[in-house]
Write a structure and sequence with these properties.
heterodimer, A: mainly alpha, 12 helices, about 0% strand, B: Rossmann fold, Alpha-Beta Plaits, six-stranded mixed beta sheet, four-stranded antiparallel beta sheet, elongated
Chain lengths: ~250, ~325
């Protein structure tokens, strides 16, 4: 039992080492500040427009579709370098000779990115402050909105890291990630024309469909399971892609 | 045995990078892998460090198979790849701290200080890696390799791109580290192995062509000699005639447009232990054809020449000296 505990903490320490480096990379490079600034500027402007139009309901419901759509653009810019840059600069050769499994490397990178993503969301808490000042009494929808954003962003990041593992070029990785996310986003739009059999399956796979409930304060286990399985499956595939790189190199 | 490679083969698609390489290194030994670029040195190191698996054959480090027990192997190895890939945005200390975390070094702060001290980058601790010169990057590469105090050091071209002072320093450091560790280093510079290594494995075109101590190698080549012959006569005919003399390994006509009048100097390499009457035989062959023998001079074989003799199997074309191993990439 003790041995299991120590090997588990060693495993976590390995993930932590990778996460530490990635976070360091995020915070000293200008990318995240530029991306976050643009995101917050556009999102804030639209939030202002909503308020200025005299939107009465004290919740984030009106802004969330905009925020979610902006994340389609923001997340690929955060994830595109993750593996592609290590490939193009050659640092992957050293990284993959450290006593870490490929899964630890992928998990560490994922963890750092979700933390960086959460940091970019922090300034949006000012919207919450505004809503609270204007007399919100129901905190539930505010909490579930952020839970939804984290799950949505988390699954976007999973798709993004997978795209980054597929190529040496950061630009190509970004384009692939954006394309994949956009496709998964608009799947729901097609559901009406595909007939009664196919429609529910296609709309189940749409990243957008599962996000809607969170804004109204409804947490459905089905939605959480959907996002978690999206995250797990993209990370598993990413790990396989990274592993197979050892054979292709 | 600390390192054992048995029949290692690596194919990249149709290209064979390594073909049945077998060698070993004992505990505490400094082994040099010597060969021209593209000989398979880096491929060998990438297999030994667990970066990629061989197509066939096996390798063991400290008794652990590099494929089956990759993580155990990687725990015992410090590796410096040829291009010394570092993260340019990190400071030297932060980078080494990261490597210490990744390798789960205990008492990490001390280990970072020790490694920076040993590799002489301690005064650059807070400099961003991307701003370091090539020589300092090389030292940081070495520092990250030794930080976990590994039993085995794998260094791919550790002195490439350094200035003479840095080369001397680096060699001294490797010798010092090699006292109680197994070191395997690659180089395409022959003097490097004679100065640093206990034993040399020469690889060419993916195969091990020789294995010996540096002094043993020199002895093996002791019989080989080179001399320069200056002859007045038709260039190609003269070269062909000299090449036909028994015991001659190769003939290179020098490019000497200046001399004119059909006078050319030829560098003639004798095969090892071919005897001393070779000079006479060459002279007789030239004179026998009625050409003017202007000069014959014996030359000392450099270590580079020894290397070329060992690694080239077929007659070398006229421009062979242009791609002498010291210059090849």
């Amino acid at each position: 039992m003790k041995r299991l505990a120590s090997s588990t903490s060693a495993y976590a320490a390995g993930i932590g080492a990778i996460a530490y480096r990635e976070l360091y990379g995020y915070l000293v490079a200008p990318t995240i500040y530029a991306v976050a600034s643009v995101f917050l500027l556009v999102n804030g402007w639209i939030f202002y427009l909503i308020l200025a139009q005299g939107y009465a309901e004290a919740s984030l419901k009106a802004i969330l579709p905009t925020t979610a759509f902006l994340l389609l653009l923001v997340v690929p810019m955060l994830t595109m370098r993750l593996v592609a840059e290590e490939r193009s600069s050659g640092t992957i050769e050293l990284l993959m000779t450290f006593p870490l499994t490929d899964a630890q490397v992928v998990l560490g990178k994922y963890l750092a990115t979700i933390l960086a993503f959460a940091l970019t969301l922090v300034p949006t808490l000012s919207y919450v402050a505004i809503i609270l000042v204007h007399g919100a009494t129901d905190y539930g929808p505010l909490v579930t909105a952020y839970l939804g954003l984290l799950l949505l962003g988390g699954s976007f990041i999973g798709v993004g890291i997978l795209a980054s593992a597929l190529t040496r070029s950061q630009l190509v990785a970004g384009v692939i990630a954006f394309g994949m996310l956009l496709m998964l986003w608009v799947l729901g739009a097609a559901s009406g024309v595909l007939g009664p059999r196919l429609s529910p399956i296609i709309s189940y796979l749409s990243l957008a469909e599962h996000f809607q409930n969170f804004g109204s304060g409804v947490v459905d286990v089905k939605d959480i399971v959907f996002y978690l399985s999206a995250i797990v499956s993209t990370l598993v595939v990413t790990t396989r892609v990274v592993e197979s790189g050892r054979w292709r190199e | 045995m600390m390192i054992e490679a048995i029949n290692l083969t690596k194919r990249y698609g149709l290209r064979v990078a390594l073909q049945g390489a077998t060698f070993h290194a004992a505990r505490g030994e400094i082994l040099g892998l010597l060969g021209p670029n593209g000989a398979g040195k880096s491929t060998t190191m990438r297999i030994l460090t667990g970066y990629m698996p061989p197509s066939s054959g096996t390798a063991r480090v400290a008794g652990f198979d590099v494929v089956e027990n990759s993580i155990e192997v990687r725990r015992r190895i410090g590796y410096m790849p040829e291009s010394v890939p570092l993260y340019p945005e990190m400071t030297v200390r932060a980078y080494l701290d990261f490597v210490g975390r990744a390798k789960q070094v205990s008492r990490r702060e001390d280990a970072v200080e020790w490694a920076m001290d040993a590799a002489r980058v301690d005064h650059m601790a807070d400099t961003i890696v991307g701003r370091l010169s090539k020589g300092y990057k090389q030292r940081v590469g070495l520092a990250q390799a030794i930080i976990a105090d590994p039993e085995v050091l794998v260094l791919d071209e550790p002195t490439a791109g350094l200035d003479p002072n840095q080369i001397i320093e680096t060699r001294a450091l490797i010798r010092r580290l090699g006292r109680d560790r197994t070191v395997i280093l690659s180089t395409h510079i022959l003097p490097e192995v004679s100065m640093t290594c206990d034993r040399v494995v020469i690889v060419n075109r993916g195969q091990v062509v020789a294995e010996d101590t540096p002094s043993g190698l020199s002895q093996r080549m002791a019989g080989a000699e080179r001399f320069a012959v200056t002859v007045r006569g038709p260039r190609d005919d003269v070269a062909a005639t000299i090449a036909l003399v028994p015991g001659i390994a190769r003939v290179n006509a020098r490019d000497e447009a200046l001399t004119g009048d059909d006078i050319t100097t030829y560098d003639v390499d004798a095969e090892p232990s071919s005897g001393s009457d070779l000079v006479e035989a060459v002279a007789a062959a030239v004179v026998g054809r009625g050409w003017g023998l202007r000069e014959m001079r014996r030359q000392n074989l450099s270590l580079e020449d020894v290397f070329l003799q060992l690694t080239t199997s077929e007659p070398v074309p006229d421009d062979a000296m242009a791609v002498a191993p010291s210059e090849a990439g």
